[in-house]
Amino acid sequence: MSILSTINSIVYRHSVYLEMLSSNIKFLRQERKISQQELAKILKIPRTTLGDYERAKTEPNIATIVKLSKFFKVDLDNFLKHDLSRNKLHVQNSKAFKVLAISVDSSNRENIELVRTKASAGYMQSFSDPEYIGNLPKLYIPGLEHGTFRAFQINGNSMLPLESDSIVICNYVEKLEQVKNDDTYVIVSQNEGLVYKRVRNDKKKKELQLISDNSAFMPYSLSYNEVQEIWKFHACISFSDKKLQEKNNLQFKVDDIQGKINQIYRRLK
């Protein structure tokens, strides 16, 4: 390759990069619904300079790019390498929790992303990463009302008679004050990971008591500041036939009675 061809290639790649960066700045600013003047004030730059960024006439310096990435709470690598407007990856802000990343379809309707059991560890590390969320499998359920939903594959027997590997579809909870006693939720926290439990909300102590429907599992508490995401149960997809479920329900009731007897015995002893 000639020197001229190499230079032209470098110039072209830089041009593509600059166009993508300017597109991302404009896209995220409009998503946040703030004006150029407001964002320019936050960045401490003239509004005309921000306008040049969005028109790809001027390239922001590294410090400004980092400020933009932090302000919009978008991973710097995604901000620089991916066209967020084309991929339709969105970021929502919540006063109670960290950034909520979502994805939308071609009609600008929010997808229902599916978090499988094997992906739960990855979800714990990347639940606020729009690119990661955008790559999760998608579900479509006709007639589901508007809102932010996510589907989680549950694992284990702590919530019998709901069987292991069932999928629970949940609605995003923005504030812990909205958590209602004795309803079921998927709770995301660093210490406990991703769990599906019945919850009691102690607002005075600012903690959630997590309770399994299977009495063989003891309740435990989680402080508000440990909770990173919380999703309220909306519907369930099970993969067992009804007759088998009824048999399992009967076994669950027997096990539940046995568990309570064991608890009474331990207290008396």
Class of the largest domain, according to the CATH hierarchy? Mainly Beta
How far apart lie the N and C ends?
85 Å
Low-confidence stretches: 4-12
What is the CATH topology of the largest domain? Umud Fragment, subunit A
Main sheet specs? 9 strands, mixed
Give, in spatial order, the strands making up the sheet with the most strands. Answer: 4-3-5-6-11-7-8-9-10
CATH architecture title of the largest domain: Ribbon
Rounded radius of gyration (Å): 24 Å
How many H/I helices?
A: 9
Q: What proportion of the residues form beta strands (DSSP E)?
A: 15-25%
- Helix % is 25-40%
Order of helices and strands: HHHHHHEEEHHEEEEEEEEH
The coarse silhouette is elongated
Mean pLDDT rating: 79
Q: How many distinct domains?
A: 2
**What structural class results from the helix and strand content?**
alpha+beta
CATH superfamily of the largest domain: Umud Fragment, subunit A
Number of strands: 11
Q: Could you walk me through the main structural features you see in this protein, from its secondary elements to its overall organization?
A:
This protein is of the alpha+beta class and 269 residues long. It has two domains: 3-87, 434 Repressor (Amino-terminal Domain) (Orthogonal Bundle), CATH 1.10.260; 100-246, Umud Fragment, subunit A. It has nine helices and eleven strands. It has helices spanning 3-32, 36-43, 47-54, 62-72, 76-81, 84-87, 120-126, 130-134, 242-268; strands at residues 89-92, 100-103, 112-115, 138-139, 149-153, 167-172, 183-189, 193-202, 207-211, 220-223, 227-237. The strands form two sheets. The protein has a nine-stranded mixed beta sheet with strand order 4-3-5-6-11-7-8-9-10. Strands 1-2 form a two-stranded antiparallel ribbon. Strand 1 and strand 2 (100-103) form a beta hairpin. Helix 2 crosses helix 3. The longest helix is centred in the first third of the chain and has 30 residues, at 3-32. The chain is elongated, with a radius of gyration of 24 Å. Residues 4-12 have low confidence and may be disordered.
